[in-house]
Design goal:
Blueprint: H1 2-9, E1 17-20, E2 30-34, E3 37-41, H2 44-58, E4 63-65, E5 73-79, E6 94-98, E7 105-111, H3 112-127, E8 137-140, E9 143-149, E10 151-155, E11 161-167, H4 175-187, E12 192-196, E13 198-199, E14 202-203, H5 212-217, E15 219-222, E16 228-231, H6 236-248, E17 252-259, H7 264-269, H8 298-314, E18 319-323, H9 330-334, H10 336-345, H11 353-367, E19 371-375, E20 388-391, H12 398-403, E21 408-410, E22 421-422, E23 432-435, H13 438-443, H14 453-456, E24 463-470, H15 478-485, H16 488-497, H17 506-522
Parallel strand pairs: 3-4, 3-5, 5-7, 11-12, 11-24, 12-17, 17-18, 18-19, 19-20, 20-21, 21-24, 22-23
Antiparallel strand pairs: 1-10, 2-9, 6-7, 6-10, 8-9, 13-14, 15-16
Helix pairs in contact: 2-3, 4-6, 8-11
Zinc ion binds near residues 296, 332 and 337.
Amino acid sequence: MNETIAHWNSIVPRPVDVRPLSTGDSSVDGIQISEPITVSSDDGVLARDVAGMIAIALGESSVGVTDSATATVFVECENPEEPEDANAPQPESWQLECGVGSEQIEIRSTHRLGALRAAAALAQVLAVSSIEAYAPSLEQGGRRTIVLPRAVVSGDFAFSWRGGMLDCSRHMMSVGFIKRFIDLLALHRMNIFHWHLTDDQGWRLPSSAYPELERKAAWRDDNTTRYGHYGGIYSRDDIASVVEHATRRGVTVVPEIDIPGHVSAVLHAYPHFGCRGEELDVPVRHGIFEDVLCAGSNEVHTFLETVFDELCDLFPGPYIHLGGDECPSTRWSECPKCRARMDELGIHDPALLHGHLVESAVNAIRRRGRTPVGWDEVLEGGPPAGMLIMCWRDVAHARPAIESGYDVVICPTNRACYFDHKHRDDPDELGRLSVCTVEDTYGFDPGVLKSDGRNTGNGQGTVVGSQGNIWTEGIPCGKHAEYMAFPRMAALSEVLAGTARGAESLARDLERIRAHARRLRLLGVNAYDGPAI
Ligand SMILES: [Zn+2]
Protein backbone atom coordinates (compact mmCIF):
# COMPACT_ATOMS: atom_id res chain seq x y z
CA MET A 1 0.00 0.00 0.00
CA ASN A 2 2.72 2.47 0.99
CA GLU A 3 4.70 1.44 -2.06
CA THR A 4 1.76 2.30 -4.26
CA ILE A 5 1.58 5.75 -2.68
CA ALA A 6 5.34 6.21 -2.99
CA HIS A 7 5.19 5.15 -6.61
CA TRP A 8 2.60 7.75 -7.59
CA ASN A 9 4.15 10.36 -5.30
CA SER A 10 7.41 10.05 -7.23
CA ILE A 11 6.02 12.39 -9.89
CA VAL A 12 6.82 16.11 -9.67
CA PRO A 13 4.79 17.97 -8.65
CA ARG A 14 3.35 15.39 -6.29
CA PRO A 15 -0.37 14.58 -6.68
CA VAL A 16 -2.69 16.10 -4.09
CA ASP A 17 -4.12 12.69 -3.27
CA VAL A 18 -3.27 9.04 -3.95
CA ARG A 19 -5.78 6.36 -2.94
CA PRO A 20 -4.35 2.88 -3.44
CA LEU A 21 -6.82 0.19 -4.41
CA SER A 22 -4.72 -2.73 -3.30
CA THR A 23 -5.15 -3.95 0.22
CA GLY A 24 -2.60 -6.68 -0.17
CA ASP A 25 0.40 -6.83 2.08
CA SER A 26 3.80 -6.82 0.45
CA SER A 27 2.77 -7.55 -3.12
CA VAL A 28 1.49 -4.48 -4.91
CA ASP A 29 -1.43 -4.97 -7.22
CA GLY A 30 -0.81 -3.34 -10.56
CA ILE A 31 -1.91 -3.28 -14.17
CA GLN A 32 0.37 -4.17 -17.02
CA ILE A 33 0.73 -1.68 -19.82
CA SER A 34 2.33 -2.58 -23.10
CA GLU A 35 3.71 -0.26 -25.71
CA PRO A 36 2.53 1.20 -27.96
CA ILE A 37 0.27 3.05 -25.56
CA THR A 38 -3.04 4.04 -27.13
CA VAL A 39 -5.33 6.92 -26.19
CA SER A 40 -9.07 7.18 -26.84
CA SER A 41 -11.52 10.02 -26.26
CA ASP A 42 -14.83 11.26 -27.67
CA ASP A 43 -12.91 14.37 -28.65
CA GLY A 44 -10.31 13.46 -31.26
CA VAL A 45 -8.23 16.61 -30.78
CA LEU A 46 -7.99 16.00 -27.06
CA ALA A 47 -7.01 12.36 -27.61
CA ARG A 48 -4.25 13.55 -29.96
CA ASP A 49 -3.00 16.11 -27.42
CA VAL A 50 -3.08 13.66 -24.49
CA ALA A 51 -1.07 11.22 -26.64
CA GLY A 52 1.32 14.09 -27.47
CA MET A 53 1.90 14.79 -23.79
CA ILE A 54 2.69 11.14 -23.05
CA ALA A 55 5.01 11.09 -26.07
CA ILE A 56 7.18 13.80 -24.43
CA ALA A 57 8.38 11.04 -22.12
CA LEU A 58 8.04 7.90 -24.21
CA GLY A 59 8.69 9.14 -27.74
CA GLU A 60 6.29 9.52 -30.67
CA SER A 61 6.59 5.90 -31.81
CA SER A 62 5.43 4.51 -28.44
CA VAL A 63 2.11 6.38 -28.26
CA GLY A 64 -0.89 6.58 -30.60
CA VAL A 65 -4.60 7.44 -30.84
CA THR A 66 -7.31 4.81 -31.29
CA ASP A 67 -11.08 4.38 -31.36
CA SER A 68 -10.75 0.91 -29.92
CA ALA A 69 -12.34 -0.15 -26.66
CA THR A 70 -9.03 -1.72 -25.73
CA ALA A 71 -7.23 1.63 -25.54
CA THR A 72 -4.64 1.91 -22.78
CA VAL A 73 -5.92 5.34 -21.73
CA PHE A 74 -9.49 6.66 -21.87
CA VAL A 75 -10.04 10.39 -21.54
CA GLU A 76 -13.36 11.63 -20.20
CA CYS A 77 -13.56 15.40 -20.31
CA GLU A 78 -16.78 17.40 -19.84
CA ASN A 79 -15.58 20.50 -21.75
CA PRO A 80 -12.84 19.47 -24.16
CA GLU A 81 -12.99 22.66 -26.27
CA GLU A 82 -10.72 25.65 -25.82
CA PRO A 83 -12.76 28.46 -24.20
CA GLU A 84 -13.68 31.21 -26.68
CA ASP A 85 -12.66 33.89 -24.19
CA ALA A 86 -8.94 33.39 -23.62
CA ASN A 87 -9.22 35.29 -20.34
CA ALA A 88 -11.79 32.87 -18.93
CA PRO A 89 -10.18 30.81 -16.19
CA GLN A 90 -10.09 27.13 -17.02
CA PRO A 91 -9.81 24.82 -14.03
CA GLU A 92 -6.84 22.50 -14.26
CA SER A 93 -7.76 19.93 -11.63
CA TRP A 94 -7.54 16.33 -12.74
CA GLN A 95 -8.14 12.74 -11.73
CA LEU A 96 -6.55 9.59 -12.99
CA GLU A 97 -7.94 6.14 -12.27
CA CYS A 98 -5.47 3.37 -12.77
CA GLY A 99 -6.92 -0.15 -12.90
CA VAL A 100 -10.27 0.72 -11.33
CA GLY A 101 -12.73 -1.89 -12.55
CA SER A 102 -10.66 -2.54 -15.65
CA GLU A 103 -7.07 -3.07 -16.70
CA GLN A 104 -6.95 0.42 -18.15
CA ILE A 105 -6.26 4.01 -17.17
CA GLU A 106 -9.04 6.56 -17.13
CA ILE A 107 -8.38 10.29 -17.12
CA ARG A 108 -11.23 12.45 -15.82
CA SER A 109 -11.42 16.24 -15.90
CA THR A 110 -14.02 18.95 -16.33
CA HIS A 111 -11.82 20.92 -18.75
CA ARG A 112 -9.25 20.26 -21.46
CA LEU A 113 -6.35 21.59 -19.36
CA GLY A 114 -7.10 19.15 -16.56
CA ALA A 115 -6.87 16.23 -19.01
CA LEU A 116 -3.49 17.52 -20.23
CA ARG A 117 -2.19 17.84 -16.65
CA ALA A 118 -3.25 14.25 -15.92
CA ALA A 119 -1.49 13.16 -19.11
CA ALA A 120 1.70 14.90 -17.94
CA ALA A 121 1.49 13.11 -14.59
CA LEU A 122 1.01 9.80 -16.38
CA ALA A 123 3.92 10.56 -18.73
CA GLN A 124 6.28 10.97 -15.79
CA VAL A 125 5.23 7.79 -14.05
CA LEU A 126 5.42 5.82 -17.29
CA ALA A 127 8.84 7.23 -18.13
CA VAL A 128 10.58 5.47 -15.32
CA SER A 129 9.54 4.21 -11.98
CA SER A 130 11.19 5.34 -8.82
CA ILE A 131 10.72 1.88 -7.40
CA GLU A 132 13.02 -0.83 -8.67
CA ALA A 133 10.23 -3.41 -8.77
CA TYR A 134 8.44 -1.36 -11.40
CA ALA A 135 11.45 -0.29 -13.42
CA PRO A 136 10.75 -0.34 -17.16
CA SER A 137 10.32 -4.00 -17.19
CA LEU A 138 9.57 -7.26 -18.84
CA GLU A 139 10.65 -7.37 -22.41
CA GLN A 140 7.82 -9.45 -23.87
CA GLY A 141 8.13 -10.24 -27.52
CA GLY A 142 10.21 -7.13 -28.03
CA ARG A 143 7.56 -4.87 -26.47
CA ARG A 144 8.23 -2.98 -23.29
CA THR A 145 5.70 -3.63 -20.57
CA ILE A 146 5.24 -1.31 -17.63
CA VAL A 147 3.51 -2.16 -14.38
CA LEU A 148 1.50 0.62 -12.72
CA PRO A 149 -0.01 0.14 -9.24
CA ARG A 150 -3.78 0.46 -9.02
CA ALA A 151 -4.89 3.75 -7.51
CA VAL A 152 -7.08 6.81 -7.86
CA VAL A 153 -4.73 9.76 -8.20
CA SER A 154 -5.80 13.41 -8.24
CA GLY A 155 -4.13 16.75 -8.63
CA ASP A 156 -4.78 20.47 -8.42
CA PHE A 157 -2.76 23.66 -8.18
CA ALA A 158 -2.38 26.31 -5.51
CA PHE A 159 -1.33 28.96 -8.05
CA SER A 160 -2.68 29.77 -11.50
CA TRP A 161 0.59 31.25 -12.89
CA ARG A 162 3.26 28.55 -13.01
CA GLY A 163 5.85 29.61 -15.50
CA GLY A 164 9.26 29.52 -17.03
CA MET A 165 10.94 32.49 -18.73
CA LEU A 166 13.53 32.11 -21.47
CA ASP A 167 15.65 35.06 -22.60
CA CYS A 168 16.15 34.71 -26.36
CA SER A 169 17.75 38.13 -26.88
CA ARG A 170 21.13 37.64 -25.23
CA HIS A 171 21.34 34.27 -26.90
CA MET A 172 18.92 33.21 -29.58
CA MET A 173 17.62 29.75 -28.77
CA SER A 174 16.49 27.50 -31.64
CA VAL A 175 12.79 26.94 -32.28
CA GLY A 176 13.44 23.25 -31.63
CA PHE A 177 14.79 23.98 -28.16
CA ILE A 178 12.00 26.44 -27.39
CA LYS A 179 9.46 23.70 -28.10
CA ARG A 180 11.43 21.29 -25.93
CA PHE A 181 11.53 23.87 -23.12
CA ILE A 182 7.73 24.19 -23.42
CA ASP A 183 7.47 20.37 -23.33
CA LEU A 184 9.53 20.23 -20.16
CA LEU A 185 7.40 22.92 -18.52
CA ALA A 186 4.26 20.99 -19.54
CA LEU A 187 5.74 17.75 -18.21
CA HIS A 188 5.89 19.51 -14.81
CA ARG A 189 2.30 20.72 -15.28
CA MET A 190 3.42 24.32 -15.60
CA ASN A 191 1.27 26.56 -17.75
CA ILE A 192 3.14 29.76 -18.74
CA PHE A 193 6.01 30.20 -21.19
CA HIS A 194 7.31 33.77 -20.85
CA TRP A 195 9.30 34.53 -24.00
CA HIS A 196 11.75 37.43 -23.51
CA LEU A 197 12.19 38.55 -27.12
CA THR A 198 13.97 41.89 -27.03
CA ASP A 199 16.76 43.44 -25.02
CA ASP A 200 19.84 45.62 -25.49
CA GLN A 201 21.71 42.79 -27.20
CA GLY A 202 19.16 41.94 -29.88
CA TRP A 203 15.60 42.28 -31.18
CA ARG A 204 14.03 38.96 -32.23
CA LEU A 205 10.67 39.93 -33.72
CA PRO A 206 9.54 40.64 -37.27
CA SER A 207 7.94 44.04 -37.84
CA SER A 208 6.22 45.27 -41.02
CA ALA A 209 6.23 48.87 -39.87
CA TYR A 210 9.86 48.99 -38.72
CA PRO A 211 11.94 46.80 -41.08
CA GLU A 212 15.24 48.11 -39.72
CA LEU A 213 14.56 46.11 -36.56
CA GLU A 214 15.05 42.90 -38.51
CA ARG A 215 17.87 44.29 -40.66
CA LYS A 216 19.86 46.00 -37.89
CA ALA A 217 18.46 45.57 -34.35
CA ALA A 218 18.51 41.78 -34.64
CA TRP A 219 22.27 41.60 -35.16
CA ARG A 220 25.35 42.35 -33.10
CA ASP A 221 29.00 42.18 -34.06
CA ASP A 222 30.89 40.36 -31.37
CA ASN A 223 34.57 40.45 -32.17
CA THR A 224 35.50 39.50 -28.62
CA THR A 225 34.42 35.89 -29.10
CA ARG A 226 33.83 33.34 -31.82
CA TYR A 227 30.27 34.61 -32.30
CA GLY A 228 31.16 37.36 -34.78
CA HIS A 229 28.05 38.61 -36.60
CA TYR A 230 25.38 37.09 -34.33
CA GLY A 231 21.61 37.23 -34.20
CA GLY A 232 18.44 36.95 -36.24
CA ILE A 233 14.71 37.07 -35.71
CA TYR A 234 12.01 34.46 -35.29
CA SER A 235 9.89 34.47 -38.45
CA ARG A 236 6.12 34.69 -38.37
CA ASP A 237 6.00 30.97 -39.18
CA ASP A 238 8.42 30.21 -36.33
CA ILE A 239 6.25 32.14 -33.89
CA ALA A 240 3.01 30.56 -35.15
CA SER A 241 4.49 27.08 -34.76
CA VAL A 242 5.70 27.82 -31.21
CA VAL A 243 2.26 29.18 -30.24
CA GLU A 244 0.50 26.16 -31.79
CA HIS A 245 2.88 23.76 -30.02
CA ALA A 246 2.32 25.49 -26.68
CA THR A 247 -1.45 25.40 -27.14
CA ARG A 248 -1.34 21.64 -27.71
CA ARG A 249 0.59 21.32 -24.44
CA GLY A 250 -1.81 23.55 -22.50
CA VAL A 251 0.82 26.26 -22.08
CA THR A 252 0.15 29.98 -22.61
CA VAL A 253 2.86 31.97 -24.38
CA VAL A 254 3.48 35.40 -22.83
CA PRO A 255 5.67 37.43 -25.22
CA GLU A 256 7.76 40.35 -23.98
CA ILE A 257 9.03 43.46 -25.73
CA ASP A 258 11.15 45.19 -23.10
CA ILE A 259 10.70 49.00 -23.06
CA PRO A 260 11.45 51.86 -22.36
CA GLY A 261 14.95 50.78 -21.22
CA HIS A 262 17.01 47.86 -22.50
CA VAL A 263 16.54 49.21 -26.04
CA SER A 264 20.12 49.69 -27.32
CA ALA A 265 19.32 47.41 -30.28
CA VAL A 266 16.33 49.58 -31.22
CA LEU A 267 18.48 52.72 -31.00
CA HIS A 268 21.03 51.11 -33.31
CA ALA A 269 18.28 50.71 -35.93
CA TYR A 270 16.41 53.95 -35.22
CA PRO A 271 18.84 56.38 -33.52
CA HIS A 272 16.32 59.24 -33.44
CA PHE A 273 14.16 57.23 -30.99
CA GLY A 274 16.77 58.10 -28.33
CA CYS A 275 17.15 61.47 -26.62
CA ARG A 276 20.59 62.12 -28.12
CA GLY A 277 19.87 60.81 -31.63
CA GLU A 278 23.20 59.00 -31.77
CA GLU A 279 23.53 55.64 -33.46
CA LEU A 280 24.67 53.06 -30.92
CA ASP A 281 26.19 49.68 -31.55
CA VAL A 282 24.10 46.67 -30.54
CA PRO A 283 26.16 46.00 -27.42
CA VAL A 284 28.14 42.89 -26.67
CA ARG A 285 28.59 43.77 -23.00
CA HIS A 286 25.77 43.41 -20.48
CA GLY A 287 24.31 45.68 -17.86
CA ILE A 288 22.10 48.75 -17.64
CA PHE A 289 22.43 51.36 -20.41
CA GLU A 290 21.59 55.04 -20.04
CA ASP A 291 20.31 55.52 -23.59
CA VAL A 292 16.61 54.69 -23.55
CA LEU A 293 13.52 55.68 -25.55
CA CYS A 294 12.88 59.43 -25.70
CA ALA A 295 9.67 60.19 -23.82
CA GLY A 296 9.23 63.56 -25.56
CA SER A 297 9.15 62.15 -29.09
CA ASN A 298 5.72 61.57 -30.64
CA GLU A 299 7.39 59.18 -33.08
CA VAL A 300 8.48 57.00 -30.15
CA HIS A 301 4.92 56.82 -28.82
CA THR A 302 3.72 55.82 -32.31
CA PHE A 303 6.49 53.19 -32.40
CA LEU A 304 5.29 51.74 -29.09
CA GLU A 305 1.64 51.64 -30.13
CA THR A 306 2.60 49.99 -33.42
CA VAL A 307 5.02 47.31 -32.23
CA PHE A 308 2.73 46.24 -29.39
CA ASP A 309 -0.17 46.07 -31.84
CA GLU A 310 1.98 43.91 -34.11
CA LEU A 311 2.89 41.76 -31.10
CA CYS A 312 -0.82 41.19 -30.45
CA ASP A 313 -1.16 40.03 -34.08
CA LEU A 314 1.57 37.45 -33.57
CA PHE A 315 0.49 36.16 -30.16
CA PRO A 316 -3.17 35.36 -29.38
CA GLY A 317 -2.73 34.80 -25.63
CA PRO A 318 -4.33 36.92 -22.92
CA TYR A 319 -1.08 38.45 -21.56
CA ILE A 320 1.41 40.81 -23.23
CA HIS A 321 4.58 41.78 -21.32
CA LEU A 322 6.04 45.26 -21.83
CA GLY A 323 9.15 44.94 -19.66
CA GLY A 324 9.68 48.22 -17.82
CA ASP A 325 12.75 47.17 -15.80
CA GLU A 326 16.06 48.91 -15.20
CA CYS A 327 15.44 52.20 -17.02
CA PRO A 328 17.62 55.15 -15.93
CA SER A 329 16.13 58.65 -16.32
CA THR A 330 19.50 60.38 -16.91
CA ARG A 331 18.88 61.15 -20.60
CA TRP A 332 15.33 62.37 -19.96
CA SER A 333 16.55 65.03 -17.52
CA GLU A 334 19.01 66.36 -20.13
CA CYS A 335 16.72 66.19 -23.20
CA PRO A 336 14.85 69.33 -24.38
CA LYS A 337 12.02 67.26 -25.87
CA CYS A 338 11.61 65.33 -22.63
CA ARG A 339 11.72 68.55 -20.56
CA ALA A 340 9.00 70.01 -22.80
CA ARG A 341 6.90 66.88 -22.34
CA MET A 342 7.31 67.14 -18.57
CA ASP A 343 5.95 70.71 -18.76
CA GLU A 344 2.98 69.53 -20.86
CA LEU A 345 2.23 66.75 -18.40
CA GLY A 346 2.84 68.97 -15.38
CA ILE A 347 5.39 66.64 -13.83
CA HIS A 348 8.62 67.67 -12.13
CA ASP A 349 10.42 64.37 -11.75
CA PRO A 350 11.95 63.03 -15.01
CA ALA A 351 11.61 59.49 -13.62
CA LEU A 352 7.82 59.81 -14.05
CA LEU A 353 8.30 59.88 -17.83
CA HIS A 354 8.72 56.11 -17.44
CA GLY A 355 4.98 55.83 -16.74
CA HIS A 356 4.24 58.09 -19.74
CA LEU A 357 6.04 55.71 -22.12
CA VAL A 358 4.59 52.60 -20.48
CA GLU A 359 1.14 54.13 -20.95
CA SER A 360 1.50 54.10 -24.76
CA ALA A 361 2.33 50.38 -24.70
CA VAL A 362 -0.50 49.69 -22.24
CA ASN A 363 -2.98 51.54 -24.47
CA ALA A 364 -2.03 49.41 -27.48
CA ILE A 365 -2.31 46.20 -25.43
CA ARG A 366 -5.64 47.22 -23.90
CA ARG A 367 -7.13 48.12 -27.27
CA ARG A 368 -6.61 44.50 -28.27
CA GLY A 369 -8.35 43.26 -25.14
CA ARG A 370 -5.21 41.85 -23.56
CA THR A 371 -3.78 42.20 -20.06
CA PRO A 372 -0.51 44.16 -19.85
CA VAL A 373 2.26 42.71 -17.68
CA GLY A 374 5.31 44.66 -16.42
CA TRP A 375 8.33 44.16 -14.18
CA ASP A 376 7.92 45.76 -10.76
CA GLU A 377 9.61 49.06 -11.69
CA VAL A 378 6.38 50.03 -13.51
CA LEU A 379 4.84 50.58 -10.07
CA GLU A 380 6.85 53.78 -9.73
CA GLY A 381 4.88 55.32 -12.62
CA GLY A 382 1.48 54.41 -11.16
CA PRO A 383 0.39 51.78 -13.69
CA PRO A 384 -3.27 51.40 -14.69
CA ALA A 385 -5.55 49.19 -12.65
CA GLY A 386 -5.69 45.63 -13.87
CA MET A 387 -2.06 45.50 -14.94
CA LEU A 388 -0.27 42.35 -13.78
CA ILE A 389 2.94 43.15 -11.89
CA MET A 390 5.92 40.80 -12.09
CA CYS A 391 8.13 41.32 -9.04
CA TRP A 392 11.73 40.32 -9.66
CA ARG A 393 13.42 42.30 -6.92
CA ASP A 394 12.97 41.53 -3.25
CA VAL A 395 9.59 40.06 -2.29
CA ALA A 396 9.06 43.29 -0.33
CA HIS A 397 8.31 45.00 -3.66
CA ALA A 398 5.25 42.81 -4.04
CA ARG A 399 3.52 43.94 -0.86
CA PRO A 400 2.73 47.56 -1.88
CA ALA A 401 1.57 46.29 -5.30
CA ILE A 402 -0.86 43.86 -3.66
CA GLU A 403 -2.07 46.51 -1.24
CA SER A 404 -2.69 48.86 -4.18
CA GLY A 405 -4.93 46.27 -5.81
CA TYR A 406 -2.58 44.69 -8.35
CA ASP A 407 -2.25 40.98 -8.90
CA VAL A 408 1.40 39.95 -8.85
CA VAL A 409 3.69 37.22 -10.06
CA ILE A 410 6.66 36.99 -7.70
CA CYS A 411 9.93 35.62 -9.02
CA PRO A 412 12.63 37.10 -6.80
CA THR A 413 16.24 37.19 -7.92
CA ASN A 414 17.52 36.40 -4.43
CA ARG A 415 17.86 32.66 -3.99
CA ALA A 416 14.58 31.48 -5.40
CA CYS A 417 13.68 31.92 -9.05
CA TYR A 418 16.75 33.06 -11.03
CA PHE A 419 17.99 29.88 -12.64
CA ASP A 420 20.92 31.54 -14.40
CA HIS A 421 22.54 31.53 -10.95
CA LYS A 422 24.85 28.72 -9.88
CA HIS A 423 23.38 25.49 -8.51
CA ARG A 424 25.90 25.66 -5.67
CA ASP A 425 28.63 27.91 -4.34
CA ASP A 426 31.58 26.54 -6.24
CA PRO A 427 34.00 28.45 -8.49
CA ASP A 428 33.97 25.54 -10.94
CA GLU A 429 30.19 25.49 -11.28
CA LEU A 430 28.38 26.99 -14.28
CA GLY A 431 26.29 30.08 -13.75
CA ARG A 432 26.51 33.58 -12.44
CA LEU A 433 28.18 34.42 -9.17
CA SER A 434 24.94 34.23 -7.21
CA VAL A 435 23.75 30.87 -5.95
CA CYS A 436 20.28 29.32 -5.88
CA THR A 437 20.10 25.73 -4.71
CA VAL A 438 17.15 23.39 -5.14
CA GLU A 439 16.66 23.75 -1.40
CA ASP A 440 16.47 27.54 -1.80
CA THR A 441 13.74 27.12 -4.40
CA TYR A 442 11.88 24.68 -2.15
CA GLY A 443 12.13 27.20 0.67
CA PHE A 444 10.49 29.92 -1.43
CA ASP A 445 6.88 30.46 -0.42
CA PRO A 446 4.93 32.73 -2.77
CA GLY A 447 1.91 32.11 -0.57
CA VAL A 448 3.42 34.19 2.22
CA LEU A 449 2.00 37.30 0.55
CA LYS A 450 -1.15 35.72 -0.77
CA SER A 451 -4.14 37.80 0.18
CA ASP A 452 -7.74 36.74 0.19
CA GLY A 453 -8.59 40.36 -0.59
CA ARG A 454 -10.49 39.45 -3.70
CA ASN A 455 -12.91 37.44 -1.66
CA THR A 456 -13.35 40.07 1.01
CA GLY A 457 -13.70 42.92 -1.48
CA ASN A 458 -11.18 45.15 0.25
CA GLY A 459 -9.48 46.11 -3.00
CA GLN A 460 -6.34 44.08 -2.47
CA GLY A 461 -4.64 42.13 -5.21
CA THR A 462 -3.20 38.69 -4.80
CA VAL A 463 -0.18 36.56 -5.70
CA VAL A 464 -1.17 34.58 -8.79
CA GLY A 465 2.04 32.58 -8.91
CA SER A 466 5.67 32.56 -9.89
CA GLN A 467 8.11 31.50 -12.57
CA GLY A 468 11.70 30.40 -13.02
CA ASN A 469 13.76 32.85 -15.08
CA ILE A 470 16.56 31.84 -17.43
CA TRP A 471 18.54 34.95 -18.39
CA THR A 472 21.00 33.91 -21.07
CA GLU A 473 23.92 36.38 -20.92
CA GLY A 474 26.12 33.40 -20.06
CA ILE A 475 23.97 30.63 -21.53
CA PRO A 476 24.68 30.20 -25.25
CA CYS A 477 22.60 27.11 -26.10
CA GLY A 478 19.68 24.91 -25.17
CA LYS A 479 21.67 22.13 -23.51
CA HIS A 480 23.23 24.70 -21.18
CA ALA A 481 19.80 26.24 -20.49
CA GLU A 482 18.46 22.79 -19.54
CA TYR A 483 21.33 22.34 -17.09
CA MET A 484 20.49 25.64 -15.42
CA ALA A 485 16.71 25.04 -15.42
CA PHE A 486 16.58 21.52 -13.99
CA PRO A 487 15.92 20.26 -11.46
CA ARG A 488 15.23 23.71 -9.97
CA MET A 489 12.24 24.24 -12.29
CA ALA A 490 10.84 20.93 -11.03
CA ALA A 491 11.18 22.12 -7.42
CA LEU A 492 9.40 25.36 -8.35
CA SER A 493 6.59 23.42 -10.04
CA GLU A 494 6.02 21.65 -6.75
CA VAL A 495 6.04 24.89 -4.76
CA LEU A 496 3.43 26.30 -7.17
CA ALA A 497 1.26 23.21 -7.15
CA GLY A 498 1.22 23.62 -3.39
CA THR A 499 2.43 20.07 -2.79
CA ALA A 500 5.84 20.88 -1.33
CA ARG A 501 5.36 19.80 2.22
CA GLY A 502 7.26 22.51 4.07
CA ALA A 503 10.35 22.59 6.20
CA GLU A 504 9.51 19.51 8.25
CA SER A 505 9.50 17.32 5.13
CA LEU A 506 12.25 19.01 3.19
CA ALA A 507 14.61 16.04 3.36
CA ARG A 508 11.93 13.78 1.87
CA ASP A 509 11.10 16.30 -0.85
CA LEU A 510 14.78 16.67 -1.75
CA GLU A 511 15.12 12.91 -1.99
CA ARG A 512 12.17 12.85 -4.41
CA ILE A 513 13.77 15.63 -6.48
CA ARG A 514 17.04 13.68 -6.63
CA ALA A 515 15.14 10.66 -7.97
CA HIS A 516 13.25 12.91 -10.35
CA ALA A 517 16.52 14.41 -11.65
CA ARG A 518 17.58 10.86 -12.51
CA ARG A 519 14.28 10.40 -14.37
CA LEU A 520 14.90 13.62 -16.29
CA ARG A 521 18.39 12.49 -17.27
CA LEU A 522 16.96 9.20 -18.53
CA LEU A 523 14.69 11.32 -20.70
CA GLY A 524 17.77 13.00 -22.13
CA VAL A 525 17.40 16.21 -20.12
CA ASN A 526 20.76 17.72 -19.20
CA ALA A 527 19.71 18.19 -15.57
CA TYR A 528 22.30 19.23 -12.97
CA ASP A 529 23.36 16.21 -10.95
CA GLY A 530 26.00 17.50 -8.54
CA PRO A 531 25.83 18.06 -4.79
CA ALA A 532 23.26 20.38 -3.21
CA ILE A 533 20.21 18.66 -4.57
ZN1 LIG B 1 14.13 62.70 -24.74
